[in-house]
Amino acid sequence: MTPESLLNQAQLVCKKKGARFTQVREQVFLLLANRQGAVGAYDLLAELKKIDAAAKPATIYRALDFLSKQGFVHKIESINAFVMCHHFGECNHPVQLLICDACGHVEEIQSNNFDLALRAMADTNGFTISHQIVEAHGSCKNCTQMG
Predict the structure, then answer these.
(1) Same fold for the domain at 3-84 and the one at 95-146?
(2) Is Phosphoprotein among this UniProt entry's keywords (predicted)?
(3) pLDDT, tens digit, for every residue of 80-130?
(4) In what order do the strands lie in the sheet with 106-109?
(5) Cβ atoms < 10 Å from Cβ of 92
(6) Domain 95-146 is in which class?
(7) Which of 19, 39, 63, 94 is the most buried (most CB within 10 A)?
(8) Which residues are 63's β-sheet partners?
């Protein structure tokens, strides 16, 4: 999907939910959509400042918080970065990320078996999962072949 088609889809999702998709939020969305892999908030801020010189750290963090809550982006806690979700129409889907420590490539995968196993283990322990992001670090196919 192109960044523009992703933006159109996101605009429709926001309209349906009654969420306010401001110009700054759209700009940050497009910056992420045009990226391959994960990016830190301050790198995004530097890019945003090229468009909006008045942008501050709070600007980027508020936009990222909104985009995360809408399910448009995922925060990768272990590397403090953000990555675009390319199938955000599915609300509250479990997130499993493969993160290459060599090149930084991030692959989002979905395994219903993994999700079911995790939920079964949580149920056994009387735990209710409200939000799930599983991060696995290693080497992607390209870096493994080169090494």
Answers:
(1) no
(2) no
(3) 999 998 777 655 667 889 999 998 889 888 888 888 899 999 999 999 988
(4) 106-109, 95-100, 133-138
(5) 9
(6) alpha beta
(7) 63
(8) none
Within 10 angstroms of residue 28's Cβ, the number of other Cβ atoms is 28
Q: CA-based Rg of the chain, rounded to a whole angstrom?
A: 16
**Residue 144 CB-half CA count within 13 A:** 8
Rounded to an integer, what distance in angstroms lies between the CA atom of residue 143 and that of residue 42?
26
CB-CB contact of 147 with 140 (8 Å): no
Query: According to the model, what pLDDT value does residue 34 have?
Result: 93
- For 27-63, write each residue's pLDDT tens digit: 999 999 998 889 999 999 999 999 999 999 999 999 9
**pTM, two decimal places:** 0.84
- What residue ranges do the domains of the chain occupy? 3-84, 95-146
The neighbour count for residue 77, using CB atoms within 10 Å, is: 10
Question: Which structure tokens are listed for 104?
Answer: 């930084």
Distance CA 12, CA 9 (A): 5
